[in-house]
């Protein structure tokens, strides 16, 4: 799932058209217009097996101490049956349903509040912000208040933990599997709702895509920006809330469970909380920037984002903390420092690479990158409406090292999370495997679109910057 990751277009350039407000090529935006057999097979596979994959990972920790092979071996050898495993799985409870419903309602409430953080936090861009131009030519406005929602939520969490004691800090871990059923109900409910909405009461009828294939349209979405009223945007809400706000709370609950079980919180658990906390805070600090990322600018809203953001993201992106509850790892000081530095360097590369592109775009190339005037390749293309556009593809700074060097930094940070867990089990390394597949696929998808868009100019760009992720290798 792509859900929740800050992935900005890797096309390192500034683009403008000769006519204000012109939309991009209908052949370039969003998901596919037509569905080939391979894409359809992938869609059906994910629809059938992605929920099972999440269940398998969580069940393996709950019943098999985070071993991914033991459940399969027990099933093959006859030591256990599917019914045995299912009967040991905690069911949906009213407590979990109440807890989850309250959580979502609270996040909806925070999402609808006007942002105040930008008024007193220097350099923070919040409040009403404009998104990218949609294919129909609309420019949507957003109330950027994710940082405010995160701060309020966590202030209340710590106030409860250290003063009010309304509930145990381990409440998320203690209800983790019953909450999984709630998350699935919400994920499927919102996915079905937005599909019905796309047919009968779309937010903008011109920002829809129909392939004629039910499964593909259900998964990848029909509407580009489904909304209720003026401000409740499904894509922004589910991409950022409730899953990413919950990410750091889930890790804190894991840490609290470690304290309860073992009388201490290991340095590996602290590292996971710190490194992933930096990523989450970065996401909300740059939420206005996120409006120009691939998730918002190209993806439609369907099951892929609706279910992915409510189930896949909070359950599989937090596997390191879950694993450390069952297998506490105390790292040597040198190892802990090394992992921390590796993760911080990855974050620095990720953030500075995107910053260089933003600076280049904002100034139309009239800036300095690494102390020098940036180099770039002038490009032009004509959209299907006959309008000629001009772009500049950046080849300086990190964008001269590799065409997707922001992804490289992202992968370094992802690997750092996993290294915190040692090497006894493969389960916590699912994250780096998943992110590698996801981002390599995005590289290919992004470059296919750019090659079609820029033609020979894209060949000049790839000649100037020959590597995608790792100089000399890939």
From TrEMBL:
<keyword id="KW-0753">Steroid metabolism</keyword>
<keyword id="KW-0521">NADP</keyword>
<feature type="transmembrane region" description="Helical">
    <location>
        <begin position="37"/>
        <end position="58"/>
    </location>
</feature>
<comment type="pathway">
    <text>Steroid biosynthesis; cholesterol biosynthesis.</text>
</comment>
<keyword id="KW-0560">Oxidoreductase</keyword>
<dbReference type="InterPro" id="IPR018083">
    <property type="entry name" value="Sterol_reductase_CS"/>
</dbReference>
<dbReference type="GO" id="GO:0006695">
    <property type="term" value="P:cholesterol biosynthetic process"/>
</dbReference>
<feature type="transmembrane region" description="Helical">
    <location>
        <begin position="329"/>
        <end position="350"/>
    </location>
</feature>
<keyword id="KW-1133">Transmembrane helix</keyword>
<keyword id="KW-0443">Lipid metabolism</keyword>
<keyword id="KW-0752">Steroid biosynthesis</keyword>
<feature type="compositionally biased region" description="Polar residues">
    <location>
        <begin position="1"/>
        <end position="10"/>
    </location>
</feature>
<dbReference type="InterPro" id="IPR001171">
    <property type="entry name" value="ERG24_DHCR-like"/>
</dbReference>
<feature type="transmembrane region" description="Helical">
    <location>
        <begin position="92"/>
        <end position="113"/>
    </location>
</feature>
<keyword id="KW-0444">Lipid biosynthesis</keyword>
<dbReference type="Pfam" id="PF01222">
    <property type="entry name" value="ERG4_ERG24"/>
</dbReference>
<dbReference type="GO" id="GO:0016132">
    <property type="term" value="P:brassinosteroid biosynthetic process"/>
</dbReference>
<dbReference type="GO" id="GO:0047598">
    <property type="term" value="F:7-dehydrocholesterol reductase activity"/>
</dbReference>
<feature type="region of interest" description="Disordered">
    <location>
        <begin position="1"/>
        <end position="22"/>
    </location>
</feature>
<protein>
    <recommendedName>
        <fullName>7-dehydrocholesterol reductase</fullName>
        <ecNumber>1.3.1.21</ecNumber>
    </recommendedName>
</protein>
<keyword id="KW-0153">Cholesterol metabolism</keyword>
<keyword id="KW-0756">Sterol biosynthesis</keyword>
<feature type="transmembrane region" description="Helical">
    <location>
        <begin position="147"/>
        <end position="167"/>
    </location>
</feature>
<comment type="function">
    <text>Catalyzes the last step of the cholesterol synthesis pathway, which transforms cholesta-5,7-dien-3beta-ol (7-dehydrocholesterol,7-DHC) into cholesterol by reducing the C7-C8 double bond of its sterol core. Can also metabolize cholesta-5,7,24-trien-3beta-ol (7-dehydrodemosterol, 7-DHD) to desmosterol, which is then metabolized by the Delta(24)-sterol reductase (DHCR24) to cholesterol.</text>
</comment>
<comment type="similarity">
    <text>Belongs to the ERG4/ERG24 family.</text>
</comment>
<keyword id="KW-0152">Cholesterol biosynthesis</keyword>
<keyword id="KW-0812">Transmembrane</keyword>
<keyword id="KW-0256">Endoplasmic reticulum</keyword>
<keyword id="KW-0472">Membrane</keyword>
<keyword id="KW-1207">Sterol metabolism</keyword>
<feature type="transmembrane region" description="Helical">
    <location>
        <begin position="179"/>
        <end position="200"/>
    </location>
</feature>
<dbReference type="GO" id="GO:0005789">
    <property type="term" value="C:endoplasmic reticulum membrane"/>
</dbReference>
């Amino acid at each position: 799932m792509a859900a929740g990751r800050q992935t900005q277009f890797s096309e390192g350039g500034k683009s403008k058209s000769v006519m204000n407000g012109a939309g991009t090529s209908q052949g370039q935006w969003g998901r596919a217009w037509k569905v080939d057999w391979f894409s359809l097979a992938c869609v059906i596979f994910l629809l059938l097996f992605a929920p099972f994959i999440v269940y398998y990972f969580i069940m393996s920790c709950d019943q098999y101490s985070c071993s991914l092979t033991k459940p399969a071996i027990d099933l093959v050898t006859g030591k256990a049956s599917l019914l045995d495993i299912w009967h040991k799985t905690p069911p949906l409870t009213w407590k979990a349903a109440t807890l989850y419903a309250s959580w979502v309602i609270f996040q909806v409430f925070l999402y609808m509040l006007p942002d105040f953080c930008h008024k007193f936090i220097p350099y923070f861009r919040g409040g009403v912000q404009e998104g990218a131009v949609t294919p129909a030519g609309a420019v949507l406005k957003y109330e950027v208040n994710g940082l405010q929602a995160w701060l309020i939520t966590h202030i209340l969490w710590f106030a409860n933990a250290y003063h009010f004691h309304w509930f145990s800090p381990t409440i998320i871990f203690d209800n983790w599997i019953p909450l999984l059923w709630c998350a699935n109900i919400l994920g499927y409910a919102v996915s079905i709702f937005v599909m019905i909405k796309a047919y009968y009461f779309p937010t903008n009828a011109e920002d829809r895509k129909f392939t004629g294939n039910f499964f593909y349209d259900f998964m990848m979405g029909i509407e580009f920006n489904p909304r209720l009223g003026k401000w409740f945007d499904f894509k922004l809400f589910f991409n950022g809330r409730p899953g990413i706000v919950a990410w750091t709370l889930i890790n804190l609950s894991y840490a609290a469970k470690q304290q309860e079980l073992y009388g201490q919180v290991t340095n590996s658990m602290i590292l996971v909380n710190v490194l992933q906390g930096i990523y989450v805070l970065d996401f909300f600090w740059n939420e206005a920037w996120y409006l120009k990322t691939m998730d918002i600018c190209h993806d439609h809203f369907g099951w892929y984002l609706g279910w992915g953001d409510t189930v896949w993201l909070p359950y599989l992106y937090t596997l390191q903390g879950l694993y450390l509850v069952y297998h506490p790892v105390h790292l040597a000081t040198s190892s802990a420092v090394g992992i921390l530095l590796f993760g911080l360097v990855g974050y620095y590369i990720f953030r500075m690479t995107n910053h260089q592109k933003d600076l280049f775009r904002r100034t139309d190339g009239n800036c300095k990158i690494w102390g020098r005037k940036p180099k770039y390749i002038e490009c032009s293309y004509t959209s299907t409406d006959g309008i000629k556009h001009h772009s500049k593809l950046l080849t300086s700074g990190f964008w001269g090292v590799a065409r997707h060097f922001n992804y490289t930094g992202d992968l370094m940070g992802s690997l750092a999370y996993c290294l915190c867990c040692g090497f006894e089990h493969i389960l916590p390394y699912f994250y780096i495997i998943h992110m590698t597949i996801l981002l390599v696929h995005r590289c290919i998808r992004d470059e296919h679109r750019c090659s079609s868009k820029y033609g020979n100019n894209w060949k000049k760009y790839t000649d100037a910057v020959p590597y995608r992720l790792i100089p000399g290798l890939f």
